[in-house]
């Protein structure tokens, strides 16, 4: 039986989610999505530019890929709920990434407001994936609030610094078993993504590191391979670390007395 | 509220515009040449269903938000 990611009863082969922000062109978004194998992408909602008549990002997303709007711009639960309902009215489904941020320097999510928004939206039937600072109590509250997954940050959004809160994510991996853990934010290189998967995360979400790379399509493929490799390592039960050396070749039969 | 010269002042995406009286949400969308498939519309903080655009009449000081999906993380 294939090892699949299951979110709210729906199965996915890919454990790489991709954000569509910051790409230099919309056509590049399409190509990146196709070559990465991702099955879930995020989008944002904004006022349209009344002067320009631009293409909707959605027309560049393949039909079989889940479009998950984020509530970016929301500074509190009420604004997040409003954005989610607008997203649902757009007609592309009811998957929602809750992003409640009221600080422009660190872009850290407000965990408490995120839990409030999750409760309201889960009760309205949304598939809710909340973005949080990795906190054990918040994660437990989110499980109880009906979240479909928990998305702890690896490091600050767009920083590409990798996993700076490993110990806290490990707590979630060990203790939150009802819903998947998807590491989101700060993943800068495929090796960071592999690290997340090795430590037992169920998936990762990557945006900046793909969109702003010199070759987004190529690095998206690298991320896809890294996520698969990390997942296999986790399932294989990789070898433990040791303080002392342990020889790899036999310690008998040496060619001397 | 009084309107000026048979026009009403309506806020569209945060910008004040003068529109003819009896304008509807549908009129705004049509005049701005927007593809209605790609947008979500809010009138005074209430979501307007696409098939109702032509039936929602605007009044002085109303607020309309025309929103679409863009790239985001």
Can you put this structure into words, describing what you see?
- The complex is a heterodimer of chains A (257) and B (73).
- In chain A, β1 (5-7) and β2 form a beta hairpin.
- The longest helix of chain A has 21 residues, at 216-236.
- Chain A has 8 helices and 10 strands.
- Chain A is α/β, with parallel strands linked by helices.
- Chain A is 35% helix and 16% strand.
- Chain A has helices at residues 26-36, 77-89, 111-123, 136-145, 166-175, 190-198, 208-211, 216-236, and strands spanning 5-7, 10-12, 16-19, 40-47, 66-70, 95-98, 127-132, 151-152, 182-184, 203-206.
- Chain B has 73 residues and is mainly β.
- In chain B, 10% of the residues lie in helices and 40% in strands.
- Chain B has one helix spanning 25-31, and strands spanning 7-12, 15-20, 39-43, 46-48, 63-71.
- Chain B has a 5-stranded mixed beta sheet, with no helix packed on it.
- The longest helix of chain B is centred in the middle third of the chain and has 7 residues, at 25-31.
- Classes of the chains: A alpha/beta (257), B mainly beta (73).
- The interface between A and B is medium-sized, with 39 and 25 residues.
- β4 of chain A pairs antiparallel with β5 of chain B, so a sheet runs across the interface.
């Amino acid at each position: 039986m294939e090892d699949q990611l299951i979110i709210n009863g729906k199965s996915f082969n890919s454990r790489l989610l991709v954000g569509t922000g910051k790409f230099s062109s919309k056509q590049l978004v399409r190509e990146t999505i196709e070559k990465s194998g991702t099955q879930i992408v995020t989008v944002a909602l904004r006022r349209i530019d009344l002067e320009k008549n631009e293409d909707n990002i959605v027309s560049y997303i393949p039909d079989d890929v889940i479009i998950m709007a984020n509530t970016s711009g929301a500074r509190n639960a009420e604004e997040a709920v409003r954005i989610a309902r607008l997203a649902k009215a757009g007609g592309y489904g009811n998957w929602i990434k809750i992003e409640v941020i009221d600080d422009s320097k660190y872009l850290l999510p407000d965990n408490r407001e995120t839990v409030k928004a999750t409760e309201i939206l889960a009760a309205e039937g949304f598939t809710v994936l909340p973005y949080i600072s990795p906190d054990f109590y918040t994660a437990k509250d989110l499980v109880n609030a009906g979240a479909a997954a928990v998305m702890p940050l690896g490091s600050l959004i767009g920083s590409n610094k990798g996993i700076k809160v490993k110990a806290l994510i490990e707590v979630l991996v060990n203790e939150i078993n009802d819903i998947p853990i998807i590491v989101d934010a700060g993943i800068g290189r495929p090796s960071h993504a592999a690290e997340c998967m090795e430590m037992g995360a169920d998936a990762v979400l990557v945006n900046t590191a793909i969109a702003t790379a010199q070759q987004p399509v190529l690095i998206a493929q690298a991320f896809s391979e890294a996520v698969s490799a990390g997942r296999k390592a986790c399932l294989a039960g990789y070898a433990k670390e040791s303080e002392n050396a342990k020889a790899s070749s036999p310690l008998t039969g040496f060619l001397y007395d | 509220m009084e309107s000026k010269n048979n026009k009403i002042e309506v806020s569209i995406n945060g910008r004040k515009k003068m529109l003819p009286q009896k304008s509807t949400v549908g009129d705004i969308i049509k005049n701005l040449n927007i593809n209605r498939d790609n947008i979500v519309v809010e009138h005074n903080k209430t979501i307007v269903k696409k098939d109702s655009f032509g039936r929602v009449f605007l009044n002085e000081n109303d607020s309309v938000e025309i929103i679409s999906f863009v790239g985001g993380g």
